[in-house]
Amino acid sequence: MRVLMLNYEYPPIGGGAAPITRALAEQLARAGHPTDVVTMGYGRLPFHEDRCDGRLRIFRVPALRRSPVRAVTIEMASYLASALPVTLALAARRRYDLIHAHFLMPTGVLAAAVKRATGLPLVVTIHGSDVPGYNPDRFKRGHRLLQPVWKAVVRSADAIISPSAYLRDLLQRGYPAPVARIPYGFTLPASSGVLRRQRILFASRLFPRKGAQFVLDAVAGLDLTGWEVVIAGDGPMLDPLKEQARRLGLDVQFPGFVKGQALQDLYASSAIFVFPSLHDNFPVVLLEALSHGCAIVTNNCTGMPEVVDDAALLVRPHDVAGLRAAIARLMTDEVLRDELGRRARARAAELSWERILEQHLELYSHLIAASQQPIGTAPGAAHPPR
Length: 386
Hints:
This protein is α/β, with parallel strands linked by helices. The protein has 14 helices and 14 strands. The chain has two domains: 3-185 and 353-371, Glycogen Phosphorylase B (Rossmann fold); 197-350, Rossmann fold, CATH 3.40.50.2000. Strand 1, helix 1 and strand 2 (35-40) form a beta-alpha-beta unit. It is globular and about 65 Å long.
């Protein structure tokens, strides 16, 4: 099958949904399903790029984006305006079987317009910020103003995918649409051979809801002799976090935005990974920490427990004392760290792309078959498998 994939963010720009989009596109292409991606341009990135022996084609349209980490509303709107003519031109030349969009907003608006023009079945994967109520600190006003558009996009989708039951339930509180749950896939990295160090690591985009401030408050009450603390990432909280560390008298490393092999080595060489996020769907940073066998501490809310299963210590949101106790327990109990590391690698293996790709292809095939049936036949065939 031939897939048209749409996401306003695609590596090297964007957050957790961007590498998931890339991984799925590459998995499809390597499995023999030609895939075209239309995404947002940034800086000097090329307009057209071929990957996977030409079976994956990436098109980056002009946009007003100024940061590789975060896009604002006007920048997203500029992507929609640029992407629509390019996408329609591609659809006219290529015989796509299906559209797969990532994010109901803004990408779903583009995808719905392309569906109306082409009649192709449409799949939308939700990732978090595109669902009302997910972000406590972003998009509240935008979701209220655009609620009719959001609902129209939900109705236009032939199938909606959610990586977590938490996000599925949140969407269905806003609109009673059927949602298929397919977790994010992950490719286990090869062993880098780096030595595990006594390091407490936090890695994520530095927004308030990600919780790096709680990590600093928690470790401030610990004896860190022989241990190092690293807060990796970039975002609006970077300077406030540096000031917080200074105020608490902590020696913390802030390496900024780390990517590629350097990031993988950082995970692999860290004994403890701490991620006290207040709201997250299926965070990629937890997948990465699992795959490298880190002993993990995370919150027991939203999508985090679904990702880690039994491979982490869970604490309540905002519970700095509980977070401190969990970190202290792991610092002093090497046996527990090793056991959680073993469970972490096993959990990451359960989310292998081989399994997750099969679930996507089953859904795709069902929708394509349903779209080709005469109207009025096979009652219920338009409903994808749950």
